Amino acid sequence: MGRLVIAEVLSQASLQLVSAVSGPASPALGVDAGVLTGLPPSGVAITTASKQAFSNADVVIDFSLPEALENALPLLAGLPLVSGTTGLSSSQWAQLEQHVQTAPQLHATNFSTGVNLLLHLVAEAARAMPGLDVEIVESHHRLKQDAPSGTALSLAESVAHARGLDLQSVIRHGREGRTGVRTAAEIGMHAVRGGDVVGEHTVWLLGNGERLSLAHAASSRATFASGAVRAAQWLVGRNPGRYSMRQVLGLDRTQEPQ
Q1: Cα(104)–Cα(122) distance, integer angstroms
Q2: Does the active-site annotation cover 99?
Q3: CA-based torsion, 119, 59, 93, 193: positive or negative
Q4: Same domain, yes or no: 13 and 73
Q5: Does 11 lie in the same domain as 102?
Q6: Domain identity same for 155 and 237
Q7: Local structure of residue 132 (DSSP, 8 states)
Q8: Are residues 214 and 118 in the same domain?
Q9: Do the domain assignments include residue 253?
Q10: pLDDT of 144-170, one tens digit each?
């Protein structure tokens, strides 16, 4: 994802790449960021995270691992942050909450325009059809390190919020053995891993005599990079606080932090 974000930034004449950061053990350290993505040299070499690396930035885009984001946050000094890192611990979420007190921040589990529209549609369907059972199935490549995906959890949260439920009380991760009768409130969650699947999510709403499925499939990670760069451009100049992709896409008209 980092390489795709770099390529997206370099493809837009109105944007300037001022820094590209990777981990201390990365084989890309010292390599020109443009060359790394198969483009002409950009004049920006890959470095490790430091205050100097972020000093000339107007906004930072993060696609990394929880530990990397945790190490980088103290270095951002109030810079706007767009982050797609998932699998965060409670202490790492607390760090993000500290950052949001002094800078605009947009954290999303998925930057695809289609997925964010899906989140909106799923909430509407769950609200309009409260008697239907909800099951969520997500598929990703074999290298993904967290399950269920952040997007799947966001979809479940959309359902729970629309129905006035506490997600942690009703979520059901997979089923095995004698599970008993399915409760009306539970939200089923199932993760599939294998191959090179970029990301697929299906939300089933199942009732007696009818069923509705709402789904999204990504064929290229480039769509996530494009959405993240779009979000970064939108975020610059905003007041401190947490924003959402719904606001970036105009699904939520408010311009204030949520």
Answers
A1: 27
A2: no
A3: positive
A4: yes
A5: yes
A6: no
A7: S
A8: yes
A9: no
A10: 988 999 899 999 999 999 999 999 999
- The residue from 99, 107, 140, 201 that is catalytic is 140
Tell me whether residue 258 is in a domain: no
User: Is residue 79 located within the same domain as residue 122?
Assistant: no
Bond preceding residue 66 cis, omega within 30 of 0: no
Beta strand 171-173 with 187-193 is parallel
- Residue 29 CA, chain-centre distance (Å), reads 25
Active-site residue (options: 120, 144, 161, 190): 144
Taking alpha carbons only, the member of 234, 1, 245 closest to residue 112 is: 245
Residue corresponding to tokens 């909430």: 123
Structure tokens at 137: 């199935």
What does the alpha-carbon distance between residue 238 and residue 163 come to, in Å, rounded to a whole number?
Answer: 31
What is the residue-averaged pLDDT of the chain?
Answer: 94
Q: What angle separates helix 2-10 from helix 222-235, to the nearest 10 degrees?
A: 60
Where do we find the tokens 């439920």?
165
Active site residue 140: yes
User: Looking at the structure, do residues 127 and 202 belong to the same domain, yes or no?
Assistant: yes
- Other CB atoms within 10 A of residue 140 CB: 25
Domain span at 146: 113-218
Tens of pLDDT, residue by residue over 204-250, are: 999 999 999 999 999 988 999 999 999 999 999 999 999 999 899 88
The H or E element spanning position 177 is none
Whether residues 225 and 213 share a domain: the answer is no
* SS3 label, residue 120: helix
